[in-house]
Specification:
- The protein is 46% helix and 12% strand.
- With 247 residues, the chain is of the alpha/beta class.
- It comes from Novacetimonas maltaceti.
Length: 247
């Protein structure tokens, strides 16, 4: 199985350790993983702000970089959601359709495609609260949504339950947005801050040592909120835990 590794811009710039953990984790399962060095942004920020035409060249480059792989895997639900659901600025050729269909977020790839049932190298002896990114939750169906009153499930929790020593704590509003929302946090700063403060208070009340998520963007926002409130919460990407990080 030949995998193209897509590392989103903000991970490359602020959380390169997440990209490294994703690569190492995929290689643990014997996969042939390649990182196209010409890759850049997938076009999500421009599309999210309504600049659809301006994202066309970026989307075209993404398709050129990742055509021909069996799967494209990224440690970001929001970026994968853009590729799969919103990459509409380019003409929908066969190459574009194939790249869109083959692009998976890391959790869903491990859970749905590889069907991983053990991480024998992983141990994380901490109390963990789980945060689901909105696009991953409602766009990629990472977990059940309370407003739909559907049967409860959680792909991230299922994977993390196979990590030795990890203890889940449960927040009161598990599928509520943290307020990041990309450029929303810039243009609606006050609302974004309040949502972030509410979220980290929820994690803290639950007794979490660590907040874990499949999206570094949400964690970056929440970490800033926690620091301003002088909360001792720590934040870690799910790829790092599944790859064997202990702190």
């Amino acid at each position: 199985m030949r995998i193209g590794l897509f590392v989103p811009c903000y991970i490359d710039a602020f959380h390169p350790e997440v990209g490294i953990a994703t690569l190492e984790l995929l290689e643990r399962f014997g996969l042939e993983v390649e990182y196209p060095r010409a890759q850049t942004c997938c076009g999500q920020p421009m599309t999210n702000t309504g600049c659809h035409e301006e994202s066309a060249a970026t989307e075209e480059l993404f398709v050129r970089n990742f055509s021909g792989y069996d799967y494209i895997v990224a440690p970001s639900g929001s970026c994968v959601h853009h590729v799969r659901c919103d990459m509409d600025a380019v003409a929908q050729t066969d190459d574009v359709r194939q790249v869109r269909a083959r692009t998976y977020e890391l959790v869903e790839f491990l859970h749905d495609i590889l069907k991983v049932d053990a991480f024998p190298w992983a141990e994380f002896p901490h109390r963990v609260s789980l945060h689901n990114n909105c696009n991953a939750l409602r766009g990629l169906k990472h977990a059940s949504m309370s407003e739909l009153r559907e049967k409860a499930f959680s792909k991230p929790a299922d994977l993390l339950s196979r990590v030795r020593g990890l203890e889940f704590v449960h927040i009161s509003r598990p599928d509520e947005c943290c307020g990041f929302g990309g450029t929303f946090s810039v243009f609606e700063k006050g609302v974004s801050e309040k949502m972030g403060y509410d979220k980290v208070h929820d994690h803290s009340r639950a007794g979490a040592d660590y907040v874990v998520s499949a999206d570094s963007s949400c964690m970056m926002h929440q970490q800033g909120c926690a620091q301003r409130l002088e909360m001792p919460l720590k934040f870690i990407h799910i790829a790092q835990i599944l790859n064997g990080a202990r702190a």
